[in-house]
Prior knowledge:
By secondary structure, this protein is an all-alpha fold. The chain is about 50% helix and about 0% strand. It has one domain. The chain has helices spanning about 15-25, 45-55, 65-70, 80-90, 100-110, 115-120, 125-135, 155, 165-170, 175-200. α7 (about 125-135) packs antiparallel against α9 (about 165-170) and α7 packs across α10 (about 175-200). The chain is globular.
Amino acid sequence: MKRISERDWKQNYDQTVISLIHEVFPPKTHFVDIDGDQLVQAAGDDYDEIVRDFSGKTWDQLDHRLISYHHEAPLFMSYEGFLKFLPAYLIDLFDPDTQIVHVIWNSLVELQSFEVVQNYPHRNLNDDQILCCILSFVRSSNFPLDTMIPHQTTEEYFHNPSPEAAFSMLTLGLPHERVLKIQNRIEQINDYFVFERWDQG
């Protein structure tokens, strides 16, 4: 994977993040073993529609139309089903007509809960994937991003998506050394925008 310092954060932030998502969630291998009924939590009409329309697909085969039609699908997905298609949802957040900001934010709040992390330790997001989640809620105009905002409770994060809270929410409950690694990467990106604004006077 290309280093943070080798990426073009200033010229095309959105596309840079989207490219990073493709790198850290490789479509040909990312949760390809999860399919069919494994994608959903239970049975029923809403679940059957998701199984019908999402089965046999890798995450990069979802488009904005399908995501918009099933904009509440994450609520019905299993933990692993949601993780399988999370990269497609992150990319859709960059679409000006996206309908999934709140549902993806709330799903990620639940994903970071202690209970989920404990039950699926082998399926947790790695640091690069968490970085992508954070950056998908942030736009270039939000930089430099404050990484020193204190953590809140899970309940306080629900229904409150914001660029400022993305880092603290998505690092909630992580070991201190992992938080520092992710923080360091964001600070490297911050430097690009700080230096650019200095250059502009």
